[in-house]
Amino acid sequence: LEAYLTARGEAVILSELYWVWLPGVVVMLVLMGWRVWGRGR
């Protein structure tokens, strides 16, 4: 927890957000695109 209170804490939080959110957003976009593409056919 102390790591978050230091100046480096911001970098740690940002890196964790990237590793958690990027895959989630990619999966969500793929699922949405797959559903739309599947319906189009």
In short:
The chain has helices spanning 2-5, 8-40. The chain has one domain. 90% of the residues lie in helices and 0% in strands.
Question: Could you explain how this protein is built, in words?
Answer:
The protein is mainly alpha-helical. It has one domain (2-40). The chain has 2 helices and no strands. It has helices at residues 2-5, 8-40. The chain is rod-shaped and about 55 Å long. The model has no long low-confidence stretch (mean pLDDT 83).
Report the biggest beta sheet as strand number plus sense, adding barrel if it closes: none
Measured between the Cα atoms of the first and last residue, the distance is 50 Å
Look at the helices and sheets and give the structural class.
Answer: mainly alpha
- Uncertain spans: none
The best one-word shape is rod-shaped
Mean pLDDT: 83
| Pattern of helices and strands | HH
**Strand percentage, roughly?**
under 5%
How many domains make up the 3D coordinates?
A: 1
Count of individual helical segments: 2
Task: Tally the beta strands.
Answer: 0
Helix content: over 70%
Cα-atom radius of gyration: 17 Å
